[in-house]
Design a protein that fits this description.
alpha+beta, 8-stranded antiparallel beta sheet
Length: 663
């Protein structure tokens, strides 16, 4: 047998066989050792597939669909080996096999599959699947689904998700009715090389109650069919059979005799009993974890997760729970525990998972934390991996999503690089939805760079070239963006005149040294003289030294200068608002305040974009200056970054003494 297969099993007990008038129990036990380097979303049990990218309709058949008559095909002959009866699965891309044998009085089927990408991610998707049909007379039988995901997750209601269920089919009953199932999950898994997964299913044929087979009279000759694969390569095997009503053409099914299958060494422990106990323990652990999360017992939750991971070291579901906890902790306001959240996200994606969404989440969170070098290195590795090199659609989709994240968090040059790459992919750009999304990101990049004139051109071209392809929401969004960007173009023309005037003056400057580098701000003394005086005084008093940036809104502003470090502090006084002719743009240096006017103090913010949020601030807040050096540093600021020092220079020949208002 395949030595790579790990004895990892799952139990499913289902009662009832609709259409035969009798209720009996059936036993099915699968085990798997899976390569999770996928990149696809869910594959439907019928073997339908679609390339990853913008969401598309994907309806799982219910069994009552009309199907065409199957083509005449030759049923493939198996090869009898000492390991079992081997059926070679004819994947167009990749290769695979299914080996039938007997073990512990059970029918054992070992699947060994090499595909361009394989297995699912367990994040509510199914990834690779096996859809097995077993029948004695070709007219009645059992329909078994198994999704060999390496991870298991509860659904949104906290209940267990069934990755596997059973249905019966009968010729007389037409389309098969599916039976209700008890939930189950893949209890344990192992990660094998990329593009390779294995799975083992044990079927207790004595419990497959159907015409021609019963516990007292076990049938020897069986008919079988399957759908196996993933979104890269899914095949109906043998070709030509109707998986939802194989009784239409039973001669298209594979055939085998149980008595002729090689019998391999028995397992010491019953697969049914062993895995039943393991599943009970894992279910109980999950219930404990969920209960602790409900009462926000983060330390207890973490201890239970660690205990589960230690008890079942190959259980990727425990790793997945670690990742979920890490990924959602900040958004839920959960306190930290003795670990680095991003480390578990790294473990998650390095465990062999190829799901694009997991990688994109990891990349995004690296950017959120300011770990830009790590994000760039990981993105480069993913784009060079078969996940992208062997899947142009996934490659384009991931690069576009990565560009969007880079735009959001200020990795402008990386975003330009990815969008320029996509520009050369003519086949990808033939897809209307992809092309529209790509053009949106081109405009978003110009907005982030502060070039409203360029953004206007992109938006106008989008309306001209893609109007018929835009839905109402997209059209309205473009119209709104155009309104703001056109206004910004007009205001920028005035700003350039003001900057020409500034060039003839001596304007004070603030040199802000941060953890990320130096930012130099030119202050508009003639437009906001009292605010300038206050900022110069605070700098001279070393007020800002050692403070931090307590608020960073991606693609919007970076705010700092609060003595309390949380946005609640002040210098002990406030300033009268000096809202002037200066508008907000990328690079504007302005004063934060409370909801009321005349409440400016020491807190400032730097605008990092020309988007609507920034432009709408004009006329409401005091623009005290503009960044003339170090905008690339401002782009990289994150919450908690330190202000090492702020020094005032290039001062005019007079005392800078602000007129203040009582706090």
């Amino acid at each position: 047998m395949n030595k790579r297969i790990v004895a990892i099993v799952v139990v499913l007990a289902i009662t009832g066989l609709i259409g035969l008038g009798t209720a009996h129990q059936m036993g099915l036990i699968p085990t798997n050792a899976i390569s999770a380097q996928d990149g696809g979303n869910s594959s439907t049990p019928t073997g339908n597939s679609s390339s990853e990218g913008p969401p598309k309709d994907d309806t799982t058949p219910t069994g009552d669909e009309k199907t065409d008559e199957p083509e005449e095909v030759e049923v493939p002959a198996p090869e009898l080996t000492e390991d079992g009866l081997v059926y070679t699965i004819p994947f167009e891309r990749g290769d695979g096999s299914a080996t039938l044998s007997r073990q512990n009085d059970l029918l054992r089927i070992d699947f060994d599959v090499h595909l361009p990408y394989s297995a699912g991610d367990g994040q509510g998707s199914r990834g690779s699947s096996i859809d097995l049909m077993l029948s004695v007379d070709g007219l009645h039988g059992r329909h078994l689904f198994y999704f060999p995901n390496p991870l298991w997750l509860p659904d949104g209601k906290g209940t267990l998700s069934s990755y596997r269920f059973e249905a019966s089919y009968t010729k007389e009953g037409g389309a098969p009715q599916r039976l209700a199932t008890e939930p189950t999950f893949v209890g344990e898994s192992d990660v094998s090389p990329w593009a390779h997964w294995t799975a083992t299913m044990w079927v207790d044929l004595r419990l497959m109650i159907m015409p021609g087979n019963s516990p007292a009279s076990l049938a020897d000759e069986w008919h079988m069919g399957m759908v196996i694969g993933n979104q890269a390569a899914t095949v109906v095997f043998p070709a030509g059979m109707d998986m939802y009503n194989p009784a239409k053409a039973p001669e298209k099914m594979l055939s085998f005799k149980l008595s002729e299958l090689p019998e391999i060494d028995e397992l010491d422990d019953s697969p049914v009993e062993a895995i039943t106990e393991q599943e009970k323990a894992m279910h109980e652990s999950m219930r404990t974890i969920e209960a602790k999360l409900r009462v926000r017992d983060i330390k207890g939750t973490w201890a239970e997760i660690q205990a589960s991971a230690k008890k079942w070291p190959k259980a990727l579901w425990a790793l997945n729970i670690q990742w979920l906890l890490s990924n959602n902790a900040a958004s839920q306001g959960l306190p930290d525990v003795d670990h680095n959240y991003i480390d578990f996200e790294k473990l998650y994606v390095q465990a062999g998972l190829g799901q694009s969404s997991a990688h994109l989440d990891y990349l995004y969170n690296l950017l959120v934390l300011g770990q830009n070098d790590a994000a760039l290195a990981h993105s480069a590795a993913i784009f060079a991996s078969p996940l992208c090199t062997e899947r142009p659609a996934t490659d384009g989709y991931m690069r576009l999503q990565w560009a969007e994240r880079c735009i959001t968090w200020g990795q402008v040059s990386e975003a330009e690089k990815q969008l320029n790459y996509i520009k050369q992919q003519e086949e990808l750009l033939k897809d209307m939805n992809f092309r529209v999304d790509y053009t949106f990101q081109l405009a978003a990049l110009e907005v982030r760079k502060g070039d409203s004139a360029a953004a206007v051109k992109v938006f106008e071209a989008l309306l001209k070239d893609e109007r018929k392809n835009l839905d109402t929401r997209q059209f309205n969004q473009i119209q709104q963006s155009l309104q703001f960007q056109r206004q910004a173009v007009e205001q920028w023309e005035d700003e350039l005149k003001f900057q020409a005037e500034d060039a003839e003056k001596t304007n004070p400057r603030l040199v802000i040294e941060t953890d990320k580098g130096k930012i130099v701000v030119e202050l508009f003394e003639d437009d906001a003289p009292n605010t300038t005086a206050a900022l110069v005084k605070l700098a001279k008093d070393e007020f800002y030294d050692g403070l931090n940036f307590h608020r960073v809104e991606p693609n919007f502003v970076a705010q700092g200068g609060c003595p309390n470090g949380d946005g609640t502090g002040s210098p002990g006084w406030r300033l009268k608002s000096e809202i002037s002719r200066r508008n907000h743009f990328r690079g504007s240096f302005a004063m934060a305040r409370s909801q009321r006017m005349d409440s400016q103090g020491c807190q400032f913010y730097i605008c990092v974009s020309n988007n609507e949020s920034v432009l709408s601030l004009s006329g409401k807040y005091v623009v005290a200056g503009r960044v003339i050096e170090g905008m690339e540093v401002a782009d990289q600021l994150r919450v908690g970054d330190k202000i090492k020092s702020v020094r005032a220079e290039n001062l005019r020949d007079h005392e800078y003494k602000p007129v203040t208002l009582p706090e």
